[in-house]
Write a structure and sequence with these properties.
Structural class: mainly alpha
Strand content: under 5%
Shape: rod-shaped
Order of helices and strands: H
Helix content: 40-55%
Distance between the termini: 140 Å
Largest sheet: none
Length: 117
């Protein structure tokens, strides 16, 4: 019977140790033994200024989102206020028209009473 202790290597998800100094130097998955990752010519940007273009644009859009939201909110509130002003003007005009019609009716009655006497 073999009483020798066999060493079971860790997996990628559960490495034997998290300390990079104590990892197995012969293991090809050891970060020290891997070749450095260099981008291929397809991955390289055409111009240095294009390297972070879309990424920076996306970040800028994300930073400006609250500003755009606030602008849209203010626009909506301005439209609501304008609608409120229009409806108040309409109500005031209708009230004044009714008042003028009542005054006209009173004047007509007063004239009719004056003619009948």
């Amino acid at each position: 019977m073999n009483t020798r202790k066999t060493r079971i290597p860790g997996t990628i998800d559960r490495p034997l140790t998290h300390d990079p100094k104590r990892r197995d130097p012969k293991n090809p998955m050891n970060p020290k033994n891997q070749a450095p990752m260099t981008p291929t010519h397809r991955e390289l940007p055409a111009h240095p200024r294009d390297a972070h273009g879309p990424h920076q644009n996306r970040n800028l859009e994300m930073q400006l989102m609250p500003e755009a939201l606030a602008r849209a909110h203010m626009q909506q509130r301005l439209q609501e206020a304008e609608h409120e002003r229009r409806s108040r003007r309409l109500l005031t005009a209708r009230r004044l028209q009714r008042r003028a019609e009542r005054a006209s009716l009173r004047a007509r009655r007063a004239l009719a009473m004056a003619v009948m006497q």
